[in-house]
Specification:
Length: 121
């Protein structure tokens, strides 16, 4: 059974920071690409960031480029999303994603349950 569990969401004022974590269990995820997607109310789920197997290559949505940083600790099967300079439009449920291959428009097959991030204006 593959499980991804997100944590670290919460309420923050605009300009503040949060760090999301996603821990994987049930399999070895060190060989998986990992990513973050988000979904705001009445919006489609959208790509946020992807990190490759070794952690040396990252891809970000234009909307978060320069503000968010994705990283991973393969020994802990954990991926992180450091979010700085948060804006109200970042408010969404953030979902962890994993698969051998992930593309911006093709999420991996494994999802976490999501963690709520709310940014007040």
């Amino acid at each position: 059974q593959v499980q991804l569990v997100e944590s670290g969401g919460g309420l923050v004022q605009a300009g503040g920071s949060l760090r999301l974590s996603c821990a994987a269990s049930g399999r070895t995820f060190s060989s998986f690409a990992r990513g973050w997607f988000r979904q705001a109310p009445d919006k489609e789920r959208e790509f946020v960031a992807i990190i490759n197997l070794g952690g040396g290559t990252t891809v970000y949505a234009d909307s978060v480029q320069g503000r968010f940083t994705i990283s991973r600790d393969n020994a802990k099967n954990t991926v992180y999303l450091q979010m700085n300079s948060l804006k109200p439009e970042d408010t969404a449920v953030y979902y962890c994603n994993a698969d051998p291959n992930i593309a911006t428009l093709r999420p991996g097959r494994y999802w976490g349950q999501g963690t709520q991030v709310t940014v007040s204006s």
